[in-house]
Structures are given as structure tokens and as C-alpha cells.
Amino acid sequence: MTNEILFEVVGQSGVITLNRPKALNALTHNMVKELFAKLVAWKTDGSIDAVVVKSASEKAFCAGGDIRYLYDQGLADHPPFDFFADEYRLNHLIHNYPKPYISLINGIVMGGGFGISAHGSHRIAGEKISFAMPEVGIGFFPDVGGTYFLPRMHSCSGYYCALTGIRIKRSDCLASGFATHAVSFQKFDEIEHRLASGENIDGILVDLQDQDVAPAQLFEHRDTLVRCFSQPTLVAVIEELENTITEFANTARETMLKKSPSSLVITFAQLGFGSANEFEACLQLEYRIVHRIMKDRDFYEGVRAVIVDKDHNPDWSPGTIKQVSNNLVEEYFAPLDAGDLSFQI
User: Which member of 87, 143, 286, 298 is catalytic?
Assistant: First the structure.
């Protein structure tokens, strides 16, 4: 056991505290394994009615996975596929958890943090929640169940988040469906206290949820979101944005064109797959993709530019979407020689 993630039973609830504040609670492999084991144990513990996940930091719920670790391991020719397997199994467990699984989110939530919150029953947004899926900006792709969840977000907002990596705030987290409720951060402790005493989470939220959430800024552009991001091809998405003469559309397009072209192509295709497939199949697809993307150049170039050297000037290869191989999606989506990821406990 480490102190990176803390567990306690408080009354009738199990409480999980993410405790790497200096790293914005970025998930390590140990954190993933410990969280999985505890959730399995609590799943059949009759004394625990609900699970609460929270952060020890006011800046972040969880800023994702430990990208630098993944980068270093990959460069050393030891891509940590066991980390991804364990993380995806954790996402699967949360998606199918039989008890209320309640994430108290205030601050940054990205990547792996999305994976340990989005698939639970209740995602409660404090005032400072800031959600993003920025993976295409480092030559990666929105995994941890994003294949399934993102295309189910309202009005194509999940496609927008996945393809631009732009952060959205509290009102848009609610409008998009990422967050299920808005409660003031100052009332998070009351949620925990009342859960511990055996109250039902839905009754608690009736009492505590905020009624005066600001208007959703992203959803002021709902018509543009739907028209542009529902196009049948990635090229058509970009062309529709170009033909929409608004600052919002221009910003979305210009932002996308700075991302890894290969990642954009893979991401658009994976969300299309996810819109028509069940959760388990989506995670198995992600496990196939990650085996290919961790061996390709763009991931290492993206991490170098954004996290290591921080020059924010990646040299993507290929350099444009139209130069991406027509066979790329087929190659990335192909079954693995070793077979698909199993979720047997």
C-alpha cells in the first residue's frame, strides 16, 4: 500500500481520497491496482452502501495518467501495457459497479481522471470543475472508456471535446452530460456526512444541488456543434467548421489543426465505433489501439513537445490529415495476436 491513494470506511460509505496533490493526482499503476482491489472488496461488503471518490487537492480531482512514466517506459522499449490493461479493467468495474459510485469533482479532471469518474453513477461538479480530454495534443487518443462515453455526450459535445482538447467548465459539464449534478464545493463534506449516516444519494442531491448554475457557454453554439461534429468524415467536420463563419467555429478548427493528424483520424473513427458498441467492446478496442500508438512516433513527439521540452511545437508525422494512410484505422483496430483484453476477475 502507498499513500498515493487513501481508503477508509466512514459509517455506511467507503471513501477514496486521491492523494498526489503535487502531481494533480495523476494516476500511477499502484493507484490503479489499489483502487481496483478495494472496489472489488467493497462490492460485496454488506456494510457499505455507497462509494465516494474525492481529491486531497482543491486544484484537481485527477489530471489523468502519469504520462511521463508512460513516455519513459516506451522510450526504454518497455511500453507499460500492463498498466493500460489494469486501468481499463478498473474502468469496466466502475461502469458495472452495483452500488452508487459518487465522484466529488472540483478542479481539473482529464484523461485517467475521466476514467475513474465518468463511468460511475453520480458525477458531482463543484464550482471550479474543469474537464478536458486533451490526448490528441500529445499524439495519443481519448481512452479509459472515452470510446463509449464521449459519443453519448449531448449534442456532439463529446466529439468536440475529443477532437479539440478544449476545456469546458461547470455549466457545460452539466449540459454535456459529463456531470450529473452541480453542488457547491462547500457542501461536499455534507454529502459525505449524510452518506455515512445511511442516507440515499439521490435524496441528498435533491436537497443540496445548486439551482443557479450559470448558462452553458459551449451550448450557446449547440446548432454549430451538432451540424459540424455530426459529419460522416473527419475531413467533412473540418470543412463544415471552415464554412461556418463564427469565432467559435474558427477556434475549434484552428485548434484541431494543431493536433496530431494521426490521432485525430484514430479518435474520430474510435468514437464512431463507440457510438454503436457496448462498453466492454469499446475498452477492448482501446487496448488494441494503445498497443499500436505506443509504438508510433507521434506519441513520443507530442509528449516531448508538451511535457518534456515544453516548446509546444510538435513535428507531427504525417503533417496533415489528408496525408494519413487510408489503412491506419484498419491497422490500429485490428485484433491483437494475443487476443482481446479480458475482464475476468
Answer: 143
